[in-house]
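Thread: Newbie trying to understand structure tokens

Hi all, I'm a second-year student working on a class project, and my supervisor (Dr. K.) asked me to get a predicted structure for one chain before our next meeting. I've only ever worked with sequences, so writing a 3D structure as a token string is new to me. If someone could post the tokens and maybe explain what I'm looking at, I'd be very grateful. Here's the chain:
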Amino acid sequence: METVRGVLHPQALGSATTGPANKSQLSPSTFWLMGIPGLEHLHVWIGIPFCSMYIVAVMGNVTILAVVRAERSLHEPMFIFLCMLSVTDLVLSTSTLPRMLCLFWMGDHDIAFDACLAQMFFIHSFTAMESGFFLAMAIDRYVAICDPLRHATILTHSRIAQMGAAVALRGVGFFSPHPILLKQLPYCRTRIIAHTYCEFMAVVKLACVDTGATKRYSLTVAFGIGSCDCFFIALSYVLILHAVFRLPSREASLKALGTCGSHVCVIVVFYSTAGFTFLTHRFGHHVAPQVHILVANMYLLVPPFLNPIVYGVRTKKIRDNVLSTLRVKGRC
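---
Reply by user tm_fold:
Sure, no problem. This is what the structure looks like when written as tokens:
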């Protein structure tokens, strides 16, 4: 029988035996999300900053979408890519936070197997899309700063749509096999997921067959997408910095550096937390579970929270449009 900190959970009973009957069991009807091991007594308090970040993320990203849609002067490559990133952030945060808060505040640990697989698909595919849109925005900044006269002809609306579709198809295509593969596995060990959400590696470890090939596929895809995007983003910003330092005006150089610096900070937070989670699954067997899970939550929560602030508040055109709208409403 499975125990969680010495407390038996009824969902886990009957799943730890390894007889022939269990080998034929295709999948459990529900899984049991543990939350953050060792910090169960702090779940209520941990949920407060998580909920606050989620509210800011939703309000900020919805505001960006509304402002860009309403103001035709913002229908430029940078703001179109920003809208794509905002939609990705909304899906990514909404696929995890509400369910996580139910766990933290209402003790709702059970999650249906199909719902678990759906959550897993949204998390991994939209994380890949987030990475892709960061790369698209870096390319846009590179063209805008290094070749400004050809910016409009290089990044046309049709080319932007093609880039957005390619990023979306890549995320869906590479991560659609995840739920399909897990759906076929037998689960006869336990139904307890030591995590706050249905993450692929946390679920695949529960299978009672050899999943080496499945794990290698997931790790290869995640590493391949992340490392390629990260390399080209870094290359773009190196070329941008090279061009910025050659600008004749010191004021223009500082303005470009300030804009790029804030963008780089968001990207570093995303890739550092995602990279830590990836490497912990592969090599970090001695990392404390609560540290691993908290960081895994950060790379899903912090970028959607920071993106509207960095890309919205610090972008003059968006900031001015929001302020003018608020002033008009204040007069009414």
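A couple of things are worth pointing out once you decode it. Confidence is low (pLDDT under 50) at residues 1-26. Residues 113-146 form the longest helix (34 residues). Feel free to ask follow-ups in this thread.
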